[in-house]
């Protein structure tokens, strides 16, 4: 048998842009299809918009009415931030939603002794919300300054494909606790949802109606409709009447109390909870969360660029996006969403699942977020979808995003022991350290950092509870200190360097130029 030729061995050459997409970042499906896809992204965004307020508002002393208002506000501001990001930020097709990174400092504020002593539950909720607003407003300065000053762009020059592999991968893998652990809380709807979504999106993806791969394109919408109807039938049939309360909360379709508590129409507005209050200790902890959100979003933006069939965002564009994200966190503080903002990882995964990376689709989804947050009853209807249904979808979509990070290894030399060391150690510590912090907190009811300085505790516990943040600290340090001078090509820098600057590659202008000819006033570097 003859030896294979070199071109036969390297049968899959590295590609700057991911291939096989029906629509990339600046190409658009028909208006009808775009609207349906936008609605699908809106439905997906409801998961996080419901999970975060459901967890936090009750701890703050809020009622069902308060929870509905927070959900509406989070969706309303998320829609505005998504439009700002797709128009003036990175211009990537990314949905901006609530961030879990802010939960640690928010819980610290909730347990503040001065707030816990308020006897009236509603007054305690309002006082806590105003304290959170003040801390979120101050924390927004981190991203606004690092973004608009281009400081984050300078920092990003230390990034390489090798260094970003663990970061982007753990943007997806690091969310494993929001996948099957949540879906498993109601296996009778979680597992069927997972199976049906995989069957529709993968095994039946070639089924076409009028030349449209309808099952692949709308797998999420169709599977949610089927399983939601199935869950409602189980609920109506009395299957959960004598089950524990926790099972009923996760499985029943009529226990969320969102529809009955939602107003028919209400427009969220700034300072609707009252004037924010400011405390230095609260603000320092929240600033750490803003830094974590920045790092997680950096990995998410690079993943989105791959799944939109675009080139990696140049340093100038990445920094610009972080600046606008910081402005979005400022809006979160002014409106009172109860948390900060970050890029929605699940919506990035949906770009890959549908093979549609169109910017217009995401802008339409932002319109749905704003519209249904104002029409409260209609928005609450969709928001009452049981959480295990969303969690089953996350199992697939988070995995897609993680695989995007692994795909960057094609630009590196993985026959290098140095590269294997950096990749393996960064991935392992990125999973292991946050897991230690989570387990410690679950057992001790406080994080490993537990000193008299609350702001210091929040800073340490927030930063090291984030998998992408730990991975970035480890991988970027090792990649830039361990034999870095002689390993530029092994690290993938020969491919990466041309995307560092806006003019380094001709395609950047097509993907990242500002609309309305604004580049005349804000020339890219």
Automatic annotation (TrEMBL):
InterPro entries attached to this UniProt entry: NCS2
Membrane topology according to the record: Multi-pass membrane protein
Pfam families associated with the record: Xan_ur_permease
Keyword tags: Membrane, Transmembrane, Transmembrane helix
One GO term describing the cellular component: membrane
TM helices/strands, residue ranges: 39-58, 131-152, 158-176, 183-203, 218-240, 361-383, 389-411
GO terms assigned for molecular function: transmembrane transporter activity
Subcellular location: Membrane
NCBIfam families: NCS2_1
Family of this protein: Belongs to the nucleobase:cation symporter-2 (NCS2) (TC 2.A.40) family.
The name this protein goes by in its record: Nucleobase-ascorbate transporter 2
Species, as recorded: Papaver atlanticum
Native organism taxonomy: Eukaryota, Viridiplantae, Streptophyta, Embryophyta, Tracheophyta
